[in-house]
């Protein structure tokens, strides 16, 4: 049986910008887990998973431009390294000595970079349906930038106004990564706002823009090779993993890969949430045991 949780909203200020978060609560001695969602999702992505994680205080963030967090200013973009900067600021703002990272899709990509460069505070990394940032081959970089600039100077479409919230539920169910109605309703709890004439999305339309540039495979592998904390990668048979991206994981020393049945949101779907939670709880127990062993040896 899941324990009752005392959920509260957090507002984290980073350089004058507001990032919203959901604190799922816990005991004073619980591990602190920073959970980060995927592209176009939000903190509600962890509403099903957080209550199932034992001895964890989960703090789930709305990334900039998503959910209830502030958008970036008009002159800024949504590059992955900017998300890394944001999350580094969030970790410092939380004022914790150590933190565990849990990311889905885009969130897993961002947190994999943070884990590589913040070894003094990060204690573990869980990647749900994420194998690092999207990559590009060096010879394709000019064309990628051309696409981004073309989007930036193009005509911006007028945001759609919905008179019926049910249409928004259906739009989310049938999105790029389809989800169940229950999962869609979780996500829409933080992604709908009232506007003149009805309802609109809370996310920044600029999230749809192509990246101006991406890291190369070699660069991502260089980050992966620097990760020294325990890492769990949960991948599904209906998800986004490819043979190439799976091979990239081998650059993470000692990474544990768990293959599950399900789609791209296994942590939100009733058919797959159980195995996901079991895998993560077992992983955290091993992390604790490894730490205790080190302390005994010292």
UniProtKB/TrEMBL annotation:
Domain of life: Bacteria
Any GO molecular function: hydrolase activity
Gene Ontology cellular-component annotations: membrane
Alphabetical keyword list: Hydrolase
Identification of the protein by name: Hydrolase, alpha/beta fold family
Similarity comment: family membership: Belongs to the AB hydrolase superfamily.
PANTHER family tied to this protein: MONOACYLGLYCEROL LIPASE (PTHR43798), SERINE HYDROLASE-LIKE PROTEIN DDB_G0286239 (PTHR43798:SF14)
Domain AB hydrolase-1: 33-151
InterPro entries reported in the protein's UniProt record: AB_hydrolase_1 (IPR000073), AB_hydrolase_fold (IPR029058), AB_hydrolase_sf (IPR050266)
Entry keyword Glycoprotein: no
């Amino acid at each position: 049986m899941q324990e009752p949780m005392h959920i509260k909203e957090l507002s984290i200020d980073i350089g004058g910008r507001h990032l919203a978060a959901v604190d799922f609560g816990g005991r004073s001695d619980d591990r602190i887990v920073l959970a980060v969602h995927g592209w176009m999702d939000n903190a509600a992505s962890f509403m099903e998973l957080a209550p199932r994680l034992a001895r964890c205080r989960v703090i789930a963030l709305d990334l900039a431009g998503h959910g209830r967090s502030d958008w970036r200013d008009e002159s800024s973009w949504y590059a992955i390294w900017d998300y890394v900067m944001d999350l580094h600021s969030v970790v410092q703002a939380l004022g914790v000595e150590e933190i565990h990272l849990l990311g889905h899709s885009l969130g897993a990509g961002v947190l994999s970079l943070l884990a590589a460069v913040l070894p003094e505070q990060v204690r573990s990394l869980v990647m749900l349906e994420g194998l690092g940032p999207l990559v590009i081959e060096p010879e394709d970089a000019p064309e990628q930038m051309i696409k981004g600039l073309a989007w930036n100077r193009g005509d911006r479409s007028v945001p759609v106004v919905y008179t019926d919230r049910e249409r928004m539920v259906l739009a989310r169910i049938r999105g790029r990564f389809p989800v169940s109605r229950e999962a869609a309703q979780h996500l829409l709890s933080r992604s709908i706002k009232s506007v003149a004439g009805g309802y609109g999305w809370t996310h920044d339309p600029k999230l749809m823009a192509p990246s101006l540039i991406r890291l190369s495979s070699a660069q991502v592998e260089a980050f992966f090779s620097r990760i020294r904390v325990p890492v769990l990668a949960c991948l599904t048979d209906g998800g986004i993993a490819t043979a190439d991206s799976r091979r990239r994981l081998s650059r993470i020393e000692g990474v544990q890969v768990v293959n599950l049945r399900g789609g791209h949101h296994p942590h939100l779907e009733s058919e797959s949430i159980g195995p996901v939670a079991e895998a993560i709880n077992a992983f955290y127990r091993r992390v604790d045991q490894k730490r205790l062993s080190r302390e005994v040896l010292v």
